[in-house]
Design goal:
The complex is a heterodimer of chains A (176) and B (351). Chain A is built from seven helices and no strands. With 176 residues, chain A is mainly α. Chain B has one domain. The chains are: A mainly alpha (176), B mainly alpha (351).
Chain lengths: 176, 351
């Protein structure tokens, strides 16, 4: 019973914080709320008997990526968004584009509902027997480098390409 | 797992004992930060050929208390145009992350407290199978306190201090984590307690099986990166006073200010305790039975902390570009080479 309560509490924090991320006018608060959301997700992973995934979530997302986000927001020193100015000039406010966006959002809702309704066998945690508490990291590593090795390597190549692309884009012309 | 599995019958006593250990750890950390303030001023005094604090109490031992009282009685200022919420949240975040990071650091073997308890209790707040990673994750949370303090103060000096801090911590976290990984490879476990117990015993009957002898380079990299992570001299750029007044905490006063140095000293203690657990054999050492190993643990942590202070008052501050070059061009490649060499060694020995 306490587990269920904690689950609902963490889910509420995750969903609420994520919703507030979009609602904030100050980008600094958005970043912080996103971190809170990641923290709640890490708590959910612990409940799913996956402490390694939870800690990885904190280290990678909350510890590294969000620090970079914060860094960028601070460097740009982005002011609070001016609502009226935003409404008038922003290209995303054009009717065709916003209609297209609305269509995509509706599609997403339909797809989510369909996926949730057709899901079967979610009562038991996945592989709870195989992934004993001490072997969680070992099991994850083994699966990652055998069954999913192609996806894993492809992702790392993708990240490398993105990094090189950022370096190329950031370099000004004429500089060596 | 974080949830401690209690047997239902004798749950009350074990819960009480565990709560006692947690309270003890908490108080110990608070005392550690106070003692470190005293030690820092005293060691600095000796290095500059003077006495250091001497008036308050015998040999100035009550000086930290006087410092804290002085800070408590100061006025709490919030600068104009500061972000009120984040300005208050920042020091709380910093000190919370510092305390929480110690939660998975064990500091002694199982003990019955001189026969007081029926069942032995493990000295340490929580024994988690991914303990090293939890310490690492929560230490890296500490950067938010500093960055937010810098941003919310609405001051150029603070902002620059916060920016420098985030850049520095991201750069040195990599070397820090890579140095840790080499030890994890040797111990084949992410649990700090298992890592410590893997270091029991001796080679050839003389040399203790501490990982510092297998990982001398890793130990040096870890210590360097830890100094940078905790923003200590010679890497104390977030608060370089000649350039930034006082850096990220320029606008802070009273208790809100006091929490930043406290977080820094607690982070130092955690870094020293983790170094002791990972490299110096934790509570294993000659002459003392494992039951009294916590004495060895304290001695080792104290020695590392002394080196910390010693370095601070001996080495001048780097230049900022030197700091970045050192971190990325020397420390990080060295730690990666160290990791690959260790991995190759472990593989060839296991094969």
């Amino acid at each position: 019973m306490p587990e269920t309560l904690v689950f609902y509490l963490l889910s509420a924090i995750a969903i609420g914080a994520s919703a507030l991320v979009i609602g904030q006018r100050n980008p600094m608060y958005s970043v912080l709320l996103l971190i809170a959301s990641f923290g709640a997700l890490a708590g959910l992973y612990i409940q799913l008997q996956a402490p390694f995934v939870a800690v990885a979530q904190i280290i990678i997302y909350a510890g590294a990526i969000m620090v970079l986000f914060l860094f960028v927001v601070m460097l740009l020193n982005a002011p609070q968004e001016d609502a009226a100015e935003w409404d008038r000039t922003h290209p995303l406010r054009r009717p065709t584009i916003s209609r297209f966006g609305g269509l995509l959002a509706a599609l997403l809702v339909v797809q989510l509902a369909w996926a949730l309704l057709s899901a079967r066998g979610v009562e038991a945690p996945v592989g709870a027997g195989a992934v004993a508490d001490t072997g969680s990291v070992r099991a994850l590593g083994r699966v990652l480098f055998s069954e999913y090795v192609f996806a894993f390597e492809a992702t790392s190549v993708l990240i490398l390409v993105a990094m090189l692309g950022a370096v190329v884009l950031a370099r000004r012309e004429g500089e060596s | 797992m974080i949830v401690v599995d209690f047997v239902v019958e004798d749950m009350d006593l074990r819960l009480l004992v565990q709560l006692g250990v947690i309270a003890f750890t908490f108080l110990m950390l608070i005392n550690a930060s106070a003692l470190l303030v005293y030690a820092e001023r005293k060691v600095m005094g000796f290095m500059q050929q003077r006495y250091g604090p001497y008036r308050v109490g015998p040999h100035g031992l009550l000086q930290p208390l006087a410092d804290i009282l002085k800070l408590l009685m100061k006025e709490e200022l919030t600068p104009k145009g500061a972000d009120r919420w984040l300005f208050t949240l920042a020091p709380i975040l910093a000190v919370t992350a510092a305390f929480a990071a110690f939660a998975t650091v064990p500091f002694g073997a199982e003990t019955t407290l001189f026969g007081l308890l029926d069942e032995p209790v493990k000295l340490g707040v929580a024994d988690i199978n991914v303990g090293v990673l939890v310490v690492f994750a929560l230490t890296s949370m500490g950067v938010y306190g500093i960055v937010l303090a810098g941003w919310s103060s609405n001051s150029k000096y603070s902002l620059l201090g916060g920016l420098r801090s985030s850049a520095q911590m991201i750069s040195y976290e990599l070397s820090y984590a890579t140095a840790l990984s080499a030890v994890i490879l040797l111990a084949e476990s992410l649990s700090l307690r298992v890592t410590v117990d893997a270091q029991a015993g001796y080679w050839f009957g003389v040399i203790p099986r501490w990982y510092v002898f297998l990982q001398p380079v890793g130990f040096l990299i870890y210590m360097t990166a830890a100094i940078a992570e905790t923003n200590r001299a010679p890497f104390d750029f977030p608060e370089a006073e000649q350039e930034l007044v006082a850096g990220y905490n320029t606008e802070y006063s009273s208790v809100r200010f006091a929490l930043f140095p406290q977080a820094e000293y607690i982070n130092m203690t955690t870094a020293a305790a983790v170094a002791t657990d990972l490299y110096l054999g934790g509570w294993h050492g000659p002459f003392l039975p494992v039951e009294y190993g916590w004495i060895w643990f304290l001695v080792k942590v104290g020695a590392i902390l002394f080196v910390y202070i010693w370095v601070r008052w001996t080495v001048p501050r780097y230049r900022y570009d030197q700091l970045m070059q050192f971190g990325w061009k020397w420390l990080f490649p060295a730690s990666v080479i160290n990791l690959i060499a260790t991995a190759a060694l472990v593989l060839s020995l296991n094969a």
